[in-house]
Design a protein that fits this description.
single chain; 442 residues; alpha/beta; TIM Barrel; Alpha-Beta Plaits; 2 domains; eight-stranded parallel barrel; four-stranded antiparallel sheet; 13 helices; 20 strands; globular
């Protein structure tokens, strides 16, 4: 079995799978239950001055038969007394001394920050996470994402915390900002030990079109919430990558956002995260998903000869470049496996209506298998993505790789289009049908 243990900014954990701050970490009961089932760490539901929450707190985006592809939460930080959380935190650490217990915190004044940091340290917290990301309710009070969106304020508050912190401090970042590396740099300047991202995305998850109110509905009214779940994973991956590649940040990253299984976790690790946090998937399926996650990660590491998690953290980063550094000579074309094709013609509809008109239908109505028009195929991949049959449509490389050229190189050699009707335009060889051909023939 591979060694799944990690040391994240000085916080040791038996594996990189942590519960993110949220409803699954609201109590010592839940965290002990999670640790007993195999989770390596937990970030306690954000503590501060207790709040009063509303009833009807969650909404979801379903996609076909798939439930909770996206999830919206308008619940705030803990509504439990700090003393109760601290007592339970001490009990958890007594039973699970080798598991990571991180205290998520959110208060306002320097005095409150100093006090609560000392309180959670005395209760045995292995680390502290500063919640500068919550995009609803708390931000209206000058906390949460209101801090995360102002790097100068984030830096000031983080410095307050570092004045009294004796355990590693993690700054949790909001995705509700133009450039997430700005607050990440502020955290680094303030002396934070690590960052975590992303928190939830400010959103309206849907509207009741009969009663004219956004979900979730609270006595006939709605409000924006925090969006999470599998739908936000691409956003989170990109932001983790941005922070991991930035030369002025150079902090350990705890990756958050849409992680449901071991493959999701590996993607975050390959992009520079050295621990991962999970919330929505546990709310959907329960703590038991950890068994598949640890087993899958162990098998992945074994199959790639990785002895430790650290050996592949950030391994994909060298292969992610700006668009201008991609090879313009690289060419792939679609290929349809006629034996696998079921004749649904979805690839034709997608390509003809939504892409490059590179798939043709046979004139014989009895033959429903489409054909690729290689002359028009630009290798966009759309047909292979919409095809319901695995490996029925594959992309075949056509260039020999001998003459790579990038937009950056072409720009340097003055070999790029510079006028509206420039003969260097990339689409000149693409045959576009006449506008009237788009009309139905009666």
């Amino acid at each position: 079995m591979a060694n799944l243990e990690i040391n994240f900014a000085g916080i040791k954990s038996p594996n990189p799978f942590w519960l993110a701050s949220g409803p699954p970490t609201n109590s010592g009961y839940q965290i002990m239950k999670a640790f007993d089932q195999g989770w390596g760490g937990a970030v306690w539901k954000t503590m501060g001055i207790p709040v009063v929450n509303v009833s009807s707190r969650y909404g979801a985006v379903n996609l076909g038969a798939n439930r909770m592809v996206g999830f919206s939460n308008i619940e705030l930080i803990t509504d439990r007394r700090l003393s109760d959380n601290l007592r339970e935190m001490e009990e958890v650490k007594k039973h699970f001394p080798d598991h990571a217990v991180i205290a998520s915190l959110m208060v306002q004044t320097q005095k409150e920050w100093h006090q609560i940091v000392q309180d959670v340290q005395n209760a045995g917290a292995d680390g502290i996470e500063l919640n500068f990301g919550c995009p609803h309710g708390m931000c209206e009070r000058g906390m949460g994402s209101a801090v995360g969106q102002e790097p100068a304020v984030l830096e000031t508050i983080t410095r307050w915390v570092m004045e009294v912190a004796k355990v590693p401090v993690i700054v949790k970042l909001t995705p509700n900002i133009t450039d997430i590396t700005e607050p990440a740099q502020a955290a680094a300047r303030a002396g934070a030990n690590a960052i975590s991202l992303i928190n939830t995305v400010q959103s309206l998850v849907g509207v009741d079109i009969d009663n004219f109110v956004a979900y979730p509905v609270v006595d006939g009214l709605g409000t924006n919430g925090g969006y999470c779940g599998p739908a936000v994973k691409p956003i989170a991956l990109n932001m983790v990558r941005n922070c991991a590649q930035h030369p002025l940040i150079n902090l350990p990253i705890s990756g958050i956002g849409g992680i449901e299984n071991w493959r999701d976790a590996v993607e975050f690790l390959l992009l520079g995260a050295s621990s991962v946090q999970v919330c929505t998937a546990v709310m959907h399926y329960g703590f038991g998903i950890i068994r598949e996650m640890t087993a899958g990660l162990d098998q992945y590491m074994y199959s790639h000869n990785f002895a430790s998690v650290g050996q592949f953290v950030g391994k994909a980063l060298p292969n992610i470049k700006p668009w201008e550094e991609l090879n313009l000579s690289y060419s792939v074309k679609a290929s349809i496996n006629q034996e696998k094709c079921i004749g649904c013609q979805l690839c034709y509809a997608a390509c003809d209506d939504g892409a490059h008109q590179a798939i043709d239908l046979d004139m014989d109505a009895n033959n429903r298998i489409p054909r690729i028009n290689e002359e028009n195929c630009v290798g966009c991949n759309l047909c292979s993505l919409v095809c319901p049959v695995e490996d029925c449509i594959t992309m075949i490389r056509k260039d020999n790789g001998s003459n790579p050229i990038t937009w950056k190189q072409r720009t340097a050699s003055n070999n790029i289009p510079t006028t509206f009707d420039d003969p260097l335009a990339g689409g000149l060889s693409h045959k576009v049908r006449q506008p009237l051909d788009g009309l139905r023939k009666e």
